Amino acid sequence: MRLKRAAARSGHSEAELIRKGVELILSSLPTERPEPGLFLDSGDPTWADRTDEILAEGFGSEGYQ
Q: How far is it, in rounded angstroms, from Cα 39 to Cα 47?
């Protein structure tokens, strides 16, 4: 009932008030950050360039072909 009255008073639809309310709540929350440990630092600056070679070494061993 409150939503309907607020919508009528404001000249906005109930759906628009709900969207604005959700946006207001979400914008007040802390920004999500990636969890630590999701990024790999191999220490080898050529690692990304050698991905195919590295995968071939690993999957080529022990019959994983």
A: 13
Q: How far apart are CA 40 and CA 26, in angstroms?
A: 30
10-24 average pLDDT score: 96
Domains held by the chain: number: 1
Output the DSSP codes for 12-63. Answer: S-HHHHHHHHHHHHHHHSPPP-PPTT-S---S-TTTGGGHHHHHHHHHHGGG
- Output the pTM of the full model: 0.47
> What are 54's two structure tokens?
């590295």
Host domain of residue 40: 2-63
